[in-house]
Amino acid sequence: MMRRRTTLLASCTALALALGATACGGGPVAAGGGGKSLSGQTITVAGVWSGSEQKNFQKVLDAFTAKTGAKTQFVSTGDNVSTVVGSKIEGGNAPDVVMVPQVGVLQQFAKEGWLKPLSKTTEQSVDTNYASVWKKYGSVGDTLYGLYFKAAHKSTVWYSPDALAQAGVKPPTTYDAMLKAGHTVSDSGLAAFSVAGQDGWTLTDWFENIYLSQAGPEKYDALAAHRLKWTDPTVVDALTTLGKLFKDKQLIAGGQKGALNTDFPGSVEKVFGPKPEAGMVYEGDFVAGVAKDQFGKKIGQDANFFPFPAVDGGKAPVVSGGDAAVVLKDGKNQKAAMTFLEYLATPEAAAVWAGAGGFLSPNKKLDLASYSDDIARETAKSLVAAGDSVRFDMSDQAPAAFGGTKGAGEWKILQDFLRDPSDPKATAADLEKAAAKAYQG
């Protein structure tokens, strides 16, 4: 099946080059008229990716080179994108394109005056191929600056099929049923959940899924923009719901202390490693990559997922994250950079990484057959089907001082709440105090 699919993609590419227009439903030409129109030009692309992600993104860059003749160079920034990019701009060595992992950072770049608005061709592709929410998250005001190329599905609960089968439980569809199933798993000999409390960002993801389902998308948007205070009763309700899990020592591997000493890779290991301690771990679709690459699990057989369940009669949440491509004003090759983003907006570009694995695209024109396995297809289908009900990771929309700093802000406060979840109102007050300071700054 994959060999046939590869052949079809190759035929599409060849036809697109021959006609000077993208064939097979790919949208506008992303190669400046086809052929090798960018031969002799080089674009530099900066992003947080390393390891297998960088290796797979390189395949996309290579495909662009084959299509246009342009050379590419990838620069890994590490996690602190804004600092690295800012220093490169000041040093006169700005990259042409940056893959920005947070809405807040994209907005910061735009307000600094660092970004070029994307071309009409790219904007047309976004209007045609994406749910409108992705244009919203890529825009500042009415100007589109960012193209979301790679997305994450952060509403997936991963589990060991053997553990659930041994306990005699099936994947639940409500939060209360999930906790009840967790107790049954615990009674069978394993803790229900492995929680990565050492990494504060995982706790923000827990909160966001509960809040989106329980309070609804309008309240979620208001809280994300700090138009709603964190002392609002809906926040207290969500913390109370989350606290039911945190304070139940039967549900969490190692209890609260064990969770606070477990990082994200460690949380996956406790479910899918050689000595399992828990039956389930909540995090995004990227759990599959860790389970597969580090612990040799066959996704769909040894490791599977169910959607994060609905809370208190609300709708099942779909929280996402993603990396947006932006073009810097100070880059040395803006024309080629714009052409590269036009290419990234096509299903053709997304299909390259989808076939390599470890990737989801918000591009609804991407054929699901492009994905390398059934579980990736299922998560991608869920993400695209959610349409405009998708909500971007709330902490990634906040100022970094509140939503993205280790040992501070929301990360630290939710770690304290995991340690002692007895007073949700006090935690909400602490969150509001930190948020008010960060948003004013």
UniProtKB/TrEMBL annotation:
Keyword line? Signal, Transport
User: What SUPFAM superfamilies is this protein classified in?
Assistant: Periplasmic binding protein-like II
Where does the secretion signal sit in this chain? 1-23
The UniProt entry, under Pfam families, shows: SBP_bac_1 (PF01547)
Classification via PROSITE patterns: PROKAR_LIPOPROTEIN
Entry-linked InterPro entries: Bact_solute-bd_prot1 (IPR050490), SBP (IPR006059)
Spans traversing the lipid bilayer:
none
Write out the similarity annotation.
Belongs to the bacterial solute-binding protein 1 family.
Name this protein carries in UniProt: ABC transporter substrate-binding protein
State the species of origin.
Streptomyces mirabilis
